[in-house]
Amino acid sequence: MLGALTGAVEQGLIYGIMALGVYLTFRVLDFPDLTVDGSFVTGASTAAMMIVLGYSPLLATIAALAAGFIAGIGTGLLHTKGGINPLLSGILMMIALYSINLRIMGLTVENSVGRPNIPLLQSETLITKYISFIESLGIPTYYAIVVGALVVVAVVKIALDLFLKTEVGLALRATGDNKRMIRSFSGNTDRLTIIGLAISNGLVALSGALIAQYGKFADVGMGIGMIVIGLASVIIGEALFGTKSIVRITLAVIVGAVIYRLVLAFALRIEFLDTGDMKLLTALIVVLALVLPTKLSKLKKQALRKQQVEKRGGVELANHS
What we know:
Layout: H1 2-28, H2 36-52, H3 57-80, H4 86-106, E1 117-119, H5 126-136, H6 144-164, H7 167-177, H8 179-184, H9 189-215, E2 217-219, H10 226-241, H11 246-267, H12 278-320
Antiparallel strand pairs: 1-2
């Protein structure tokens, strides 16, 4: 049981990077970007392909980040220069990335036009390099991946926090709030939208690259439902910790991703549930995260209104007597 919980925390922290990317588009830019399901696999396939071909795992991870940036730029160009609806832009790029990802993974096989998966069982990855380093220091490795993932996600979080407080970051946030106002100040909203989508999908691809190295494989279908997982993390984090500041909300998103994985880990301990039910569980978690805060808010307002009515009635009764 402890091992399952540790694994859930490890995965939750890595998926937290993806959730930060989803937060950037859905909450900051107010852009429903469905590219995520494709760019997650792009990051995983790029990193896995380069590792199998003998490149450094660090270089492969950086290349995966760059590939995600390019995918985000593609979605941004479809919307801003092509005039395509934001939702449709993401869908089109996601569909295109499916074939592109097959091509990327096919580069590991001579004369192959496509490949659905790449195993990394015999390859050295960032995870195996990190564990070897920890072992060489004589430190127990049981919680090593948790600590390592915590450090990586903290660096990404701090970098995103600092970026969103820069002039470009503030303009990006304002673009999501009111594009017309930014244009009135001669701001280039098209460029800001492309930048936001590029950074978002870069983070998603980085998460995909790390998950591929963590799970020792990359598969063309591993990105299915990633956008829902990212949204679940964002919604859970916001519901539990609020949205008072950028620093707080980015932390909430990461914690939301960890909580989501822990909930899944506990749910899969139930006898009649198996891994095939994960998508259904994800949908139920998102529904609960969306419905419960609204219902609780209504109940609080009703209770407050009732107290006010009772208080007003008591005052009127006292005055009448």
